[in-house]
Specification:
63% helix, 108 residues, mainly alpha, 6 helices
Length: 108
């Protein structure tokens, strides 16, 4: 399952490609840092949200993955979701996802 997808209009990407590429790099690095430093990050998040710190271990170990890339697994998940939408009559057709993903998107 894709937990988050960042979306932007093509003209905005074209106007500031370096800024968007840097955001993607920072997002991936931030996610990796949080998972490598669970006590620090999850502890601070738990304190701020006033919830048990173990919730974040459970959440990231059992329910979600934030790789910070849009690789083959993400392509598959989005394609399947769109196919389900088409099968349910929510959308008329499934677009070519590869044509919609920015060429500077982190893939690995």
């Amino acid at each position: 399952m894709v937990s988050a997808i960042n979306v932007a209009y093509p003209e905005r990407l074209a106007a500031r490609p370096e800024a968007f590429a840097e955001f993607n790099r920072m997002f991936k690095a931030s996610s990796a840092y949080a998972l490598r430093n669970r006590d620090e990050v999850f502890g601070a998040m738990a304190k701020q949200a006033n919830i048990d710190r173990k919730f974040f271990d459970w959440w990231f170990d059992k329910t979600t993955n934030v790789p910070g890339i849009f690789g083959d697994a993400q392509f598959k998940a989005v394609s399947q979701a769109w196919q389900i939408g088409k099968d349910m009559g929510m959308i008329a057709n499934v677009p070519d996802l590869r044509a919609l993903v920015w060429d500077k998107t982190l893939r690995a």
